[in-house]
Design a protein that fits this description.
- The complex is a heterodimer of chains A (552) and B (169).
- By secondary structure, chain A is an alpha/beta fold.
- Helix content of chain A is 39%, strand content 17%.
- In chain A, strand 12 (269-273), helix 13 and strand 13 (294-298) form a beta-alpha-beta unit.
- The longest helix of chain A has 17 residues, at 335-351.
- Chain B is α+β, with helices and mostly antiparallel strands and 169 residues long.
- Chain B contains four helices and nine strands, in the order βαββαββαββαββ.
- Chain B has helices at residues 19-30, 58-70, 102-111, 132-142, and strands at residues 5-14, 36-41, 47-56, 74-79, 85-96, 115-120, 123-130, 147-152, 156-159.
- In chain B, strands 5, 6, 7, 8 and 9 form a five-stranded antiparallel sheet that branches. Chain B has a four-stranded antiparallel sheet with strand order 2-3-1-4, with helices on one face.
- The two termini of chain B are 36 Å apart.
- The chains are: A alpha/beta (552), B alpha+beta (169).
- Chains A and B meet through loops of A and helix 1 and helix 2 of B.
Chain lengths: 552, 169
């Protein structure tokens, strides 16, 4: 039986197990939206803006591990996805973006709402397509899903010109193909890795986002327990080990914990799992772990030796590799090493200034934590509030922190929170944001309210673009160029205008009472938490610096 | 170890629309320099073969190969071993001639085993295929006579003997 391109698209999405898509209709996806109208097997969430839809699909994917799907029309619809696609790419989120385009006969004529979105997104996607022949459509969509979720996950874009949505051809359902298998390291390579681990007296496990993506968090914790190694994480790896685990020393890097970075730099082996050694995590690459052997494990072979040279590497799935290492490793306690780490922790603790009972980022985040569960998804935007969240919130379960680590996309949070809340089937999702980030995409409040999503939004409001301002105070001699906000936005009125609840917390009593009220409500709630604009994120290792440059 | 070297990569790619852009975009984005890039269909029309030359250190070479292999349309990559590789480049070069210089230029063409493909009273256009160094020499030799224009294809390369680097699926 003949099917139209848009029927084939919808049927193939269903075949791939998709039941939720995010998007925004428009001229060149009318035919696709007509098909969505007819089916009850796919739920479509219409956002306020395509960028929000893309972040929502990303948040949906990050919180579940499933492939997120976003649909946008040609031209501006497609270009509005670009930031979302790049965000997904830099954090390895499996995402399929589907765009309409003008008809094939109108391509290349600068037709109305025509953009070469394949060209635009070429360096941002794992792969992308423009489908010009209806016969190729179904298999292209299948291949897109396969690529998005195989190996190191990432975004794939499919551009479908309008005439292809109308064209007809035969269509047969196919079974879902399992992801392309990851490489398997040789026995010799595994043995050598085990030898390195067994030789080490002061091993340090450095856990990245790849551990979370591969679902190998339990294995990572087990390895750490067996060889008695401390675990430090990158920001993306924060949820790979429960914060309260005795071997957890903290996040490393620019705003990481002193004890974590110092343990790493004083170890005699760094076991790096699922991380790319981003510059935010390493600081000065020449000074980073200059004389420490590095065992680098990643599913993407190009990460080996890209930023930091590895002494030995294993390319493959951590879920497969870590148990092999656990099998071979000597189970041995390392009290001397832990005594030393304890000293770093104590030094660090001695530097912590006691928090008076006032509106500080730490107090706000700790108060929020009183109302969340182990599996509550915490979403952030980008900036100081993001770092405070990663520093002060005690993450317990994997995939409970959704944050734009690689691209650092302000405005990511609310869309991602919508996606995570939809994915959870209506569970409470917390968004911790800043006044700068929230200004960017607060329009998605409309989406959250429309779908009655119990998203609790906490604006850590310092009336400034705090992180940039912090850099200006440290590196630009307090010249606060364009970072002191003079906007008159009343976030409470804004929340109410969108149909959400709004609370303004200017002191700690108000904070306690409004956080309680927000969590006891089923509605979208915005709590505007006012803090001093002088609050800084500390510790800080200046860009291109090392542990010796740390500002405590 | 990390001195810059001249590297020839032979890359088998799917004969798809956009694949040249994917490869060249990768080089641009990651800041790798391309000395030359040639591409053409193979005997199997599903695949094209690219020959890319670049001057890089060992670390960068490793990264180029790894990054290239992440492009979905790139099927196989081989770093060519110079001693075991035939590398050729084609050049078309147009020179001014006068009655005085005609004989000298003709001799040079013969010596370098070039071929005259167009001749007018005051110009001669030569086709020459050779290793890159020989072409460079030829250009240098002809410079004093007045080069009107030239174009070169960039290196294309293939392994010697039975060194079949790709089996075409």
């Amino acid at each position: 039986m003949k099917h139209t391109g848009s029927e084939i698209l919808i049927e193939t999405l269903i075949e791939q197990g998709v039941d939720t898509v995010f998007g925004y209709p428009g001229g060149n996806v009318l035919k696709i939206y007509d098909e969505l109208y007819k089916t009850n097997k796919i739920k479509h969430i219409t956002t306020s803006h395509e960028q929000g839809a893309c972040h929502a699909a990303d948040g949906y994917a990050r919180s579940t591990g499933k492939v997120g799907v976003v649909i946008a029309t040609s031209g501006p619809g497609a270009t509005n996805l670009v930031t979302g696609i790049a965000t997904a790419a830099l954090d390895s989120t499996p995402l399929v973006a589907i765009c309409g385009n003008v008809s094939t006969s109108a391509l290349g004529k600068d037709s109305f709402q025509e953009v070469d979105i394949m060209g635009v997104t070429l360096p941002l996607t794992k792969h992308n397509y423009i489908v010009k022949h209806i016969q190729e459509l179904a298999d292209t969509i299948r291949e897109a899903f396969l690529i998005a979720k195989s190996g190191r996950c990432g975004p794939v874009l499919i551009d479908i010109p309008q005439d292809v949505q109308f064209d007809v051809c035969d269509f047969k359902k196919k079974d879902i193909v399992s992801p392309i298998p990851a490489p398997i390291p040789s026995d010799e390579d595994i043995t050598r890795a085990v030898e390195m681990i067994n030789f080490s007296k002061r091993p340090f496990i450095y856990s990245g986002g790849g551990v979370v993506l591969s679902g190998a968090c339990n294995e990572l914790v087990k390895l750490s327990e067996e060889i008695d190694a401390p675990v430090g994480t990158s920001m993306m790896g924060l949820t790979s080990i429960p914060r309260k685990h005795e071997n957890f020393v903290g996040m490393t890097g620019m705003h990481g914990r002193y004890a974590a970075t110092n343990s790493m730099m004083n170890s005699d082996l760094i076991i790096a799992c699922g991380t790319r050694f981003s510059d935010r995590a390493t600081g000065n690459k020449a000074k980073f772990a200059a004389n420490i052997p590095i065992l680098h494990i990643d599913i993407d072979q190009s990460e080996i030796n890209k930023n930091i040279k590895a002494t030995h590497s294993l390319v493959g799935d951590l879920k497969y590799i870590l148990p092999k290492l656990i099998d071979g490793a000597n189970k041995q306690k390392k009290p001397l090493w832990h005594n030393e780490i304890q000293q770093y922790k104590e030094f660090e603790a001695s530097k912590v200034v006691p928090q008076p009972d006032v509106m500080t980022p730490k107090n706000i985040i700790e108060e929020i934590q009183k109302y969340t569960k182990d599996d509550t998804v915490i979403v952030t935007d980008v900036g100081q509030h993001q770092m405070w969240t990663t520093q002060f919130y005690d993450f317990i379960k994997p995939r409970t922190l959704l944050t734009s680590g690689g691209l650092g996309t302000m405005g990511f949070g609310l869309g991602a929170a919508v996606g995570a809340s939809i994915a959870s089937g209506g569970k409470t999702v917390v968004l911790i944001t800043g006044d700068g980030s929230f200004h960017m995409n607060m329009i998605e409040l409309a989406t959250a309210v429309e779908h009655k999503l119990p998203i609790k939004i906490f604006i850590i409001n310092n009336n400034a673009l705090g992180m940039v301002k912090q850099w200006q105070s440290i590196f630009y001699d307090n010249r606060f160029s364009c970072t002191l906000q003079h906007k008159k936005t009343d976030f409470i009125l804004a929340a109410k205008a969108f149909g959400a609840k709004g609370f303004k917390a200017e002191n700690i009593e108000e904070l306690h009472s409004y956080i309680k009220e927000a969590f006891s409500s089923n509605e979208v709630c915005v709590v505007d938490c006012h803090i001093s604009s002088d609050e800084c994120v500390l510790p800080m290792i200046p860009p291109n610096g090392s542990i010796s440059d740390i500002i405590m | 170890m990390n001195e810059k070297q001249h590297v020839i990569l032979s890359v088998l790619v799917a004969n798809h629309f956009g694949v040249l852009m994917r490869v060249s975009s990768l080089f641009t984005r990651r800041g790798y320099n391309i000395d030359s890039l040639t591409v053409g269909e193979t005997n199997n029309p599903e695949f094209s073969r690219m020959t890319i030359t670049t001057t890089v250190d060992e670390d960068t070479k490793e990264q180029i190969v790894k990054q290239l292999s992440k492009i979905y349309d790139v099927k196989k990559i081989k770093v060519m071993v110079r001693e075991n590789t035939i590398e050729k480049e084609l050049m078309l070069i147009k020179i001014s001639i006068t009655n005085d210089t005609r004989t000298e230029i003709m001799n040079a063409i013969n010596l370098y085993m070039g071929k005259i493909v167009d001749l007018t009273p005051d110009t001669v256009t030569i086709e020459i295929t050779a290793e890159q160094a020989k072409l460079n020499d030829f250009v240098k030799y002809l410079e004093p006579y007045g080069i009107i224009e030239l174009c070169r294809t960039g290196i294309t390369a293939i392994g010697r003997g039975n060194d079949k680097i790709f089996s075409l699926e």
